[in-house]
Amino acid sequence: MSGEVLSQNEIDALLSALSTGEMDADELKKEQLEKKVKVYDFKRALRFSKDQIRSLTRIHENFARLLTTFFSAQLRTYVQITVASADQIPYEEFIRSIPKMTILNVFEVPPLDGRILLEVNPNIAYALMDRMMGGRGSSINKIDNLTEIETKIMSNTFERAFENYMEAWNNIVEIEPQLMDFEVNPQFLQMVTPNETVVVISLNTTIGETSGMMNICIPHVVLEPIIPKLSVHYWMQSEKKERKPEEIGRLEMHIQRADVPIVGELGTSEISIQDFLMLDIGDVIELNKQIDEPLVLKVGDIPKFIGQPGKVNKKIAIQVLDNVKGGDDDDER
């Protein structure tokens, strides 16, 4: 029996069947004890748990936000990148699912072994390149005959974009992405064996009026050393790093030696732009303070003290009379 809740009519029908002999209680117990057979496809080996896939999804959601910011700044147009799905499939199935001619960027991510593949739909790649070259971001699909200049522009762009991958993984492992290969035909690319399990993260990408997909393919061999870190327990635990006493002492010493600018403000004044443009040598600007009023002493740009001007050993000086009271900055002293 399953754990679902039965209605009153179903309960009554079950009791009636048992009482009339249509259903045997012993047979029901035997059915519960029998082992359920679950079909398992060895070609689609599930080597990642749902918990680990969720962790990978979170990492790539962060990466999608970083990519959105990067491309928005580079292209000066509307860019939106979001995670569409995260699945584990055989490598062969992934290769069959992408276009026959597409943009393939192969990265190494030391210290992890193996390679990661960034596949970019040609519509997105050409829209991106057209925008970078000063166009409106229109897309054409002639990926089979890329020129050397187009190849260089695309590879450089995606290499710089993939630098954000390092920041996305920073909480799990420190990696250094390096572009190792640039291809357009998936058939010429063999990163792992056909039956090797890979995680494919699909990113919905919109650049201006052009939409398409970017896929990140991560083989199991790359993630194997850090699989324990992809559990929810690792994400939820808060690691508090306590500083050693000698580190605190050095920090305090550096703070005490830090130089901060101190300014004695004689006063302020407001004039129009026209008067400012007419200023000449010998003109006088009237300030908002009397000559016998105390000065405001600022540390950085924050008023901290009240003082009076004077001289010490023939040098101009200010004597501190009091602290500045009140205001939002009073608690920062």
Automatic annotation (TrEMBL):
BP-aspect Gene Ontology terms: bacterial-type flagellum-dependent swarming motility; positive chemotaxis
Q: Which SUPFAM superfamilies match?
A: CheC-like (SSF103039), Surface presentation of antigens (SPOA) (SSF101801)
Alphabetically sorted, this entry's keywords are: Bacterial flagellum, Cell membrane, Cell projection, Chemotaxis, Cilium, Flagellar rotation, Flagellum, Membrane
Q: Please give the GO cellular component terms listed in this UniProt entry.
A: bacterial-type flagellum basal body; plasma membrane
Q: Which domain of life is it from?
A: Bacteria
Q: How does it sit in the membrane?
A: Peripheral membrane protein
Q: Does the keyword Cell membrane apply?
A: yes
The Gene Ontology terms for molecular function here are: cytoskeletal motor activity
Q: Where in the cell is it found?
A: Bacterial flagellum basal body; Cell membrane
User: InterPro entries from the entry?
Assistant: CheC-like_sf (IPR028976), Flag_FliM (IPR001689), FliN-like_C (IPR001543), SpoA-like_sf (IPR036429)
Flagellar motor switch protein FliN-like C-terminal domain mapped to chain residues: 254-323
Q: Which family does it belong to?
A: Belongs to the FliM family.
- Name of the protein in question: Flagellar motor switch protein FliM
The organism is Cytobacillus dafuensis (Bacillus dafuensis)
